[in-house]
Amino acid sequence: MYSFERYPVPKGYFTARDGVQLPWFEYGNLKASHTILFLNGFTCNQYNIAKVVATLGVDYRIVTFDYRGQGLAYRERYKKVSIDAVLDDIDALHEHIGRIPVLLFGYSMGCQLAVEWNYRDNTRVIGLVLLLGIYGNIFDSFLNTKIFAPMLNATYHAFPFLKPILKRTWRTAHRLPFAIRLALGKGTLLNPDRVNEAELRPFLDQLAELDFEYILHMSHAIHHHTNEGQFDRIKAPCLIISGEADLFALPQHSERVHQAVAASWYFSIPAGTHNAVLEHSEEITSWIAEFLREKNLAAG
């Protein structure tokens, strides 16, 4: 069983619109002139973004939270599992920190959420950084195949009848020996040659503790939501980073966003997988620093 003994301590808990209490985290330079609101990825916890956060935290205040069903919020069972529910939670956190202008960062699913949140009200966003992003209908191209969207839909509809089996299968698969899980992910979602075990295990080990019902319903919600028609609302300076070897968020998705957002910056990490936030954090933070400096968004 995964242990939270070394997990980052939350700054506190904020109250969502439906009364749910969710943990939020504050890192970095608390006196910085700019605050980064960092939206994490699907099934991720604070360790996934830890290296990027540590570097950016020298100059910026960084605020983030654990989504319903993830990180410290994994234990509860939530009635509302949807994109709209998460967006309401982002609104609640933003209100909790004072509705201040933010540099909006997204990683993976966090990009999909960031674009939607910006679309609903872009006056609160002074800069946008999208890392290895998905932007809807993601399982149409997952692993560069077309088989996963039909599989997802079939599993979603069969779940009420196969609930115990599917939950047990998820837990068993994610409790295999670490070396086996690493081998299964190599070449598709991560590059273990560029990250050490201590950095990777907190993410991989916690997957077994996540509720498969949440995973399935949120996967379905992510897939059936799209950012199409929302990119023209991005008026703040925008940096988009993809990974050339990312088989989850294929680089073509990020390229499409770059083409849709006028004057955006785009960089693709050679050999970068979907885990590039850990594997290539130095390159990512270097590009972010240059972008923010050139756009007069550097911390004062």
From TrEMBL:
- One Pfam match: Abhydrolase_1
Question: Which Gene3D superfamilies does the UniProt record give?
Answer: alpha/beta hydrolase
InterPro entries, per database record: AB_hydrolase_1, AB_hydrolase_fold, AB_hydrolase_sf
AB hydrolase-1 domain location is 35-280
In alphabetical order, the GO MF annotations are: hydrolase activity
Transmembrane spans: none
State the UniProt keywords alphabetically: Hydrolase
GO cellular component assignments = membrane
Q: What is this protein called?
A: Alpha/beta hydrolase fold containing protein
Q: Which organism is it from?
A: Turneriella parva (strain ATCC BAA-1111 / DSM 21527 / NCTC 11395 / H) (Leptospira parva)
